[in-house]
Fold:
Amino acid sequence: MTHSATRSAPPRRTRRIVLLGLAVLGLAGAAFVVRRPLLMAAPQCLAGRWHGCYDTENGVVLMMLVGLPLAALVGSALALGRRAAGVSSAWRMSLAEVGLVYGTVPMVWLTLMPGPGAGVVPGRVSLVPLRDLVTMGPIGIGGNLLIFAALGFFAPMRSAALASVPRILALGAGCSVLVETAQYVFRLDRVSSLDDVLVNAAGAGLAALASRRWWRTAAELPAEQPHPAPAPAAAD
Structure:
């Protein structure tokens, strides 16, 4: 058993390195494709100006890419602290927490950006299923799939209670309903659409399927580990 476990360790480490390398290459490729729009917001962001950076899609995406090293440092610090405390799956839990927050908050921020008629145009609601999918287009559908993708990918890795595709779908739909309601209540000049809720939830569900092999199961929780039975009392 010891020899087999020792032999299986290098392949697992190799797979992790390969997956990490592919992720880095994917991010680098995506950044290269959209480099020109991102560089348009670079002067405002580097100057620390709110207008032209954090109130634009290009600026928010640029700052997400710039902040990746800091997010990696935070995740590493959390993991090392947990390992020192003897917590099992320290790296996975820390990666899940940082990835969930870092990948979801900026996307929600993008959906809550006010339009040109914010505060003037009354809220609009579209409750007919599948009607707005035609007007979204491929870019709109892809963007809606990504809004809660990080939530769907990392939440089951962090919590065994969410290690289920139906639960992630419900979570993604619930979060999307909150976002659509905020768009309507605060009159952000956006359409609160049922199709947005459906596509957001689908994105969370698909991302959950992609991370299924790394889900945290109930068997891995410390509370489920059996305690050793007390030794029988010695006979007189």
